[in-house]
Specification:
The chain has about 400 residues and is an all-alpha fold. The chain has one domain (about 15-405): Growth Hormone, Chain: A. About 75% of the residues lie in helices and about 0% in strands. It contains 17 helices and no strands. Helix 5 runs antiparallel to helix 16 and helix 10 runs antiparallel to helix 15 (about 310-335). The protein is globular.
């Protein structure tokens, strides 16, 4: 424990949880979610800005994109600080910063000011997510902890999508920001109960034996680069559509109540994807389950072309929700497998945030009044590229796992 860490010293008065226990994994999931929870209610946020403040489709998309681009910058900054600063007081300070930024957001009505403020909010949240990912990487079976992370995100995100859109007409867009404040406050209360999770020696984890040959470090970097690219493309493809999924449903002639219920229920059912990761972990490797799930995501995205049929819209959202939670848990776990200090996990967080930010940005640029078909097609192309990128690193990590298993 860092002797200069007063918050860590005070935490001795709290019954800290076992570092790799299931409850600790849940609390870490909240920590890594707090800085980016607005992504899980992004459809409600974008639609709320349009309906509550009169923003255009493009302006609302830019607000969501600026929020996540700020998170990308913060996640990149986290790569350089996760080994140097005590994570606990840093997390507390960042959570307080998020609360202040969300409070200020309730007072802003102009698009330009909102974009700037949400970018700043994103920077704070991005560092927090990077810190959370780095701490998760110090747990055993990080894939499982990321499974809990997606379970929390989709579970509470579904609750938000079910109820928050109905609150905006009555209480305004401020209801969305107060929901984010409540999440940050709950997470703040959890921090003292988490273990210390000290920085470990900087050695590669199960990727160590995946890079055979004399240029092992070079190859390991190439494999990590492909894993990061797969993460970026997968997140960008999904978020480009998710940010406008309410508008897509309305354009297809579906009723607001049906759309809201569909998204809320889909997010809850999607928990099955993250629970599957918790149960499976790397029992069947990574290549087979991840590749199959991305193929199913491609199919689910494509059938959004037929959203005018209610059950097709419902099936696409449920199916993609399940595979989204499943695949991203594995992708983040893959990134963290290349290093035990948490730096490559923070890099994975950066790639994820860049994807989440770039999706709505591309959507805002191409959607125009209602060009949803082009948006769907671009999402399918990005998912195919993600599949191509994931094959080599997943195969290498599976090979390393098999060698470790056989050795033991």
């Amino acid at each position: 424990m860092n002797r200069a860490d007063p918050i860590a010293s005070r935490s001795r008065h709290f019954p800290t949880l076992p570092a790799n226990g299931e409850l600790a994994r849940v609390l870490l999931a909240f920590l890594a979610t707090a800085g980016l929870f607005y992504v899980n209610i992004m459809p409600a946020l974008v639609d709320g800005l349009i309906g509550g403040l009169g923003f255009s489709n493009r302006q609302a998309g830019f607000v969501g994109s600026a929020n996540v681009y700020g998170a990308s910058l913060g996640a990149l900054a986290a790569v350089f600080v996760v080994k140097r600063l005590p994570w606990r007081p840093l997390a507390v300070g960042l959570l307080l910063g998020l609360i202040c930024a969300d409070l200020l957001s309730t007072l802003v009505e102009g698009a330009g000011a909102m974009i700037a403020l949400r970018f700043a909010h994103g920077c704070i949240g991005g560092v927090l997510v990077g810190v959370g990912f780095a701490v998760i990487a110090r747990t055993s079976e990080a894939d499982r902890t990321f499974g809990y992370l997606l379970t929390v995100q989709f579970g509470l995100g579904g609750l938000g999508l079910l109820y928050l859109p109905g609150l905006v007409p009555e209480f305004g867009v401020s209801a969305l920001f107060f929901a984010l404040i409540a999440f940050s406050l709950v997470t703040l209360l959890m921090v003292p109960f988490l273990n210390d999770y000290p920085v470990q020696a900087a050695v590669p984890a199960d990727a160590s034996s995946a890079a055979d040959g004399s240029h092992r470090p070079v190859r390991r970097r190439a494999l990590l680069g492909l894993a990061l690219a797969a993460t970026f493309l997968f997140q960008a493809a999904n978020m480009a559509l998710y940010a406008y999924i309410i508008g897509l449903g309305k354009h297809a002639g579906l009723g607001p109540a049906f759309i809201s219920n569909t998204l809320g229920i889909a997010a809850w059912i999607a928990i099955a994807g993250s629970v599957a990761v918790i149960l499976l972990s790397t029992r069947f490797g990574r290549l087979l389950p991840v590749s199959l799930a991305i193929v199913l995501t491609i199919a689910g995205t494509w059938i959004l072309h037929y959203s005018q049929v209610g059950w097709v819209y419902w099936l696409a959202n449920v199916g993609v929700g399940i595979t989204w939670a499943f695949v991203i848990s594995y992708l983040l776990g893959m990134c963290s497998a290349f290093d035990s200090t948490g730096q490559t996990a923070a890099l994975g967080g950066f790639a994820s945030k860049m994807g989440l930010a770039s999706g709505p940005m591309v959507g805002a640029l191409v959607i125009g009044d209602a060009n949803y078909a082009l948006l769907i097609n671009l999402g399918v192309v990005a998912l195919v590229l993600s599949l191509l990128c994931v094959i080599r690193p997943a195969r290498a990590l599976d090979r390393a796992l098999n060698k470790t298993f056989n050795h033991n």
